[in-house]
Specification:
Blueprint (H helix, E strand, L loop, with lengths): L11 H5 L3 H5 L18 E15 L4 E16 L13 E8 L6 H17 L4 H8 L3 E13 L2 E8 L5 E2 L1
Antiparallel strand pairs: 1-2, 1-4, 2-3, 4-5, 4-6
């Protein structure tokens, strides 16, 4: 039994045209992975901010700034051998900047990244910066980092705030 994607993988338009019964009868190899859940290889990317809001995260309902991006292009990957792992662009991407704990690291990271947006818009409060950021285009390095959770090795992407430039 082959559960991997194959040449008969259906695109989004084909899937949209199918009804529930037809979808249930598909072979799993015909279904492409959702790109938004795949990690990006480390590299230099261009993006647009599509949304920004305060949200609550996890069972503890920790408050965080949630910024949604549309990754538009990959200018280069840190490892050229990983270039094909970028996948189809544009794609959605989200980062969380926690407001509490971590010695203010989350909110300071947000400030580092979005200070030029604030200056350009003539605003200084985070709530106003969230509004001003939507629609902004920019780019920078997206890193791939490893961490342990419950003893298991995991990986995530993070924008390197010190490399961000806005158009």
């Amino acid at each position: 039994m082959n559960l991997n994607q194959n040449a008969d993988t259906l695109d989004a338009a084909a899937l949209e045209s199918l009804g529930a019964e037809d979808l249930l009868s598909l072979d799993i190899a015909q279904l492409a992975d959702v790109e938004a859940f795949k990690l990006l290889p480390a590299g230099l990317y261009g993006w647009e901010v599509t949304g920004a809001e305060i949200t609550e995260v996890g069972a503890e309902n920790k408050k965080a700034i949630s910024v949604q991006y549309k990754i538009l292009e990959c200018m280069e990957t840190s490892n050229p051998e990983e270039a094909e792992e970028v996948g189809e662009l544009p794609r959605e991407y989200k980062e969380l900047y926690f407001l509490e704990g971590g010695k203010g690291f989350g909110v300071r990271t947000f400030a580092t990244m979005f200070r030029p947006i604030a200056v350009g818009a003539g605003v200084s409060q985070i709530s106003d910066i969230l509004e001003a950021a939507v629609g902004a285009s920019g780019g920078g390095m997206i890193k791939k980092r490893g961490y342990k959770k419950d003893g298991e090795q995991k990986y995530s992407n993070n924008i390197d705030a010190t490399t961000v430039e806005w158009a």
